[in-house]
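Data availability (excerpt). The following record was deposited with the supplementary files.
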Amino acid sequence: MRLTTRTARVLAASVLASALTVAVLPGTAVALPPNADPHFVQVDAGRFNHAVLGLTDDGTVYSWGVGFYGELGEGTSVIEKLTPSPIALPALAAGDRVIQVSVGSEHALALTEQGTVLAWGRNESGQLGLGDTATRGTPTIVPTSAFPGLSTARIVAISASGADHSLALSSSGQVFAWGWNGFGQVGDNSVSDRWSPVRVINNSATSVSAGNGYSFAVTSAGVYSWGINLYGQLGNGTTSARLVPSSTAAFPGLASGEQIVEVAAGGDHVLARGSHGTVYSWGDDGYGQLGLGAGDDSRTAPAIVTVPGLASGDTVESVDAGEGYSLARTAAGSLYTWGFNSDGQLALGDLADRDSPTPVTAFPAVLDDAPIAHASAGHDGAVIVSATGGVYGSGRFGGLLGDETASDYPVSTFSNIRLGDLAGSASLSAAPLAGTPVSANTTGWNAGAVLSYQWQRGGSDIGGATGSSYTPVVGDLGQQLRVVVTATAENFATGTTTSTAATVAAAAPDIQTLSLPPATAGDVLSIPIVTTGTGPLYYSGVTLPSGLSIGTTTGVISGTLTVVGSYTVQIQVSSDYGVDNGYFTLSVVPGATTRLTLLPSTTTPTQGDTIDVTVVGYDAYDNEVGNLTSETVFVSDVSTDLVVGNAITFPQASPHTITATARGVSESVVIQVTPLRGSLSGTGAADTGEVAAVAILALVLGTVLLGAGGLTVTRMRLRSGVARSRRSA
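Predicted structure:
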């Protein structure tokens, strides 16, 4: 008679402390559906029974299925839950939460982030670790003091998947075991049951897994096993039982630097995984669960399992062993299954056993393209968690494992394990009027639900009308309009609701345009007037500036305005059902600067004067752009002129060409500067070259020249380019 049980794939606390994530191969496009609410990160399906525990990212524990000894966590009187629901937990320390769950044959364990172990369910062999054999129907804290030699370490992993015994791993590498010990699966060199944890490995352990009457621990020194060994499941090359941890046989084909990092103990077979993704199996192979090909190839030592068809760069990231079948999940989120399949637990669409790993390719629409983040092999049903938090099952998972509407079995492909039905309401946002959009108001739907819409006329679908709003047409007049809303979400069954139908009526024209955008002189205008109402609609311009017109049926204002100003526009729209008028102001602003006008403060400056030049810009239609003086650069063609901003000083009398540049446009003006009265005049070169500076200085500043003989006023006159003087006392 073959014993059966459930194996928990142990995850480090640091991994489960946050939502599980899945690595995606470079270049792989993955379109994920919205994150499920609640968001599951781990599941564990019972090996011996049909109880399942699920864990969400906030530490809530869900249970569903069948449990006769309180393993559902709802008390011993609750033996069946057709849909998942949360269970109550005892008070935890501030900030603490559950990070791992594990289901045994008829008992369950949970582990918190701070290392607290919770236990509930059947306890006739002390498998709860509470020091007695009393069954507990709800989660109960296992005192930290129950773990001998734990000291400052804490529990970081648990496994309750054995027939009736439990394992725990500490942060310092210790392994503890308790419960039924009829085959030495506790590992303390006896076959006596242990009601409290005993320490069987002192250090260096990194993971643990409880099988059907046997146990495994992975350590830095290798893989150790103990307990029953009828089918060679201890992997030590024999079929002899071990009462204490003993080393397994060597693992062939390990790559350089590769180590065994995970062992999953099943009913009577075992899987292991190397750090480079190499998969091993040993033990019973009655159904092909070892994955080694055709024939009963039971093994007493590890053998390499070939996983075909892996994408380039993808590797196996986790394994789990059920009752006669196996699962392997890859880093990219793909799933392989093999072994016993009488209930469809392999999710391959049939009930045929497989003796080699086979990829699972069929998933529900809501799960398509979402990688698998976690997988658990139960007694005769597999349960998976998507990277977005949804939970799905295949095999015997119907009324027993979480969907009250599904048949118990077989279910040979993954189906949604729902927490309930999606529900909400839909209504029309307003009485439907032909030509006026009406929207679907949706309320009360579950968080994360994706809504789709189908509008109906007279009870029949309107082709292409699948948006959240719809604009009735003239052909809808007098018809009953309604919208059908369908919701989908992971962890819930699809929900559908239909709004109350309403008759489509005619609507008078209503101009929706609120204002006209400003235009630039010379722009070619094309301004639509937006109007609702039952058509056909006709437009006219009651008042339109010269040069503009409006399309009679399009309602588009077009034309060109070249004169700056504000124009009053009145548009009228009419139909068989009424008239509406719209009143607007259309502002036209100047275009780009095309020329400048220079305005000197005086056109007759005198030698030595300073004048200001004002610059005004104009566009191509002679609309004044504005005073551009502050942004203008001025240049004179006379090098002695002093230019400061728009102020220009003229030291000498002559024609001066002043050039102004603004906004890429230049303009010049010629200014004739008149000589100072009484100043030197003449036409010779000496006028400016030899004497001019002295003459101007003398005349302007009234310079007094002191001669050797006393005060002398000197007058100078230029004749024929020669300076002459008369002196007077």
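Summary of structural features: The first strand starts at residue 40 and ends at 45.
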